[in-house]
Amino acid sequence: MGKLFPALLPEHEAFIAKQKLFFVGSAPTDGHVNLSPKGHDVLRVLSPTEVAYLDLTGSGNETSAHLDDNGRITLMFVAFEGAPMILRLYGQGQVILPDSPEWEALASRFELLPGARQIIRAEIHAVKTSCGFSVPFFHYEGERDMLQRWAATKGEQGLDAYRQEKNAVSMDGWVTPIGQRLREQGQ
């Protein structure tokens, strides 16, 4: 059944590379737990103990606020076809904003999709597999392009205004790194 590893093995990396969807879990020290689905080709394995994903603009920014509070993050991958498996990565995450010194090196690993707002990097301290015997089969039909079309239509100024309204503070009132940057800029 389940096994615990200190780092990703090559077979874990191969499993991750085949997934069309993954989930990100985070929680502040005091407040709501958040779980977000992530699609598109936005995740990169940087090393057996480090991953990063390109985070796109959304209606909230909970993970970012939680990471700024305590850094805790869990990424989960599920086999919807083939042999059953659930793979969880436990770690400490960090938000990398576009004007951060680390952005350039990390961003070059991704196709910068319209609406990209930050990169989430996670140092992994535990990898856990579990059976996934009760996970149903699903057939993948394709990526939704609605967010990318919406972001392209908004343009950078429109996205900045949207992020100021929707992404600067979490639902629990935690200021996100985007919110901190906006405050530093007097917005």
UniProtKB/TrEMBL annotation:
SUPFAM superfamilies in alphabetical order: FMN-binding split barrel
In which domain of life is the source organism classified?
Answer: Bacteria
Q: Which residues form the Pyridoxamine 5'-phosphate oxidase N-terminal domain?
A: 9-130
Cited InterPro entries: Pyridox_Oxase_N, Split_barrel_FMN-bd
Pfam families per the UniProt record, alphabetical: PNPOx_N
Instruction: Kindly provide the name given to this protein in its UniProt entry.
Output: Pyridoxamine 5'-phosphate oxidase family protein
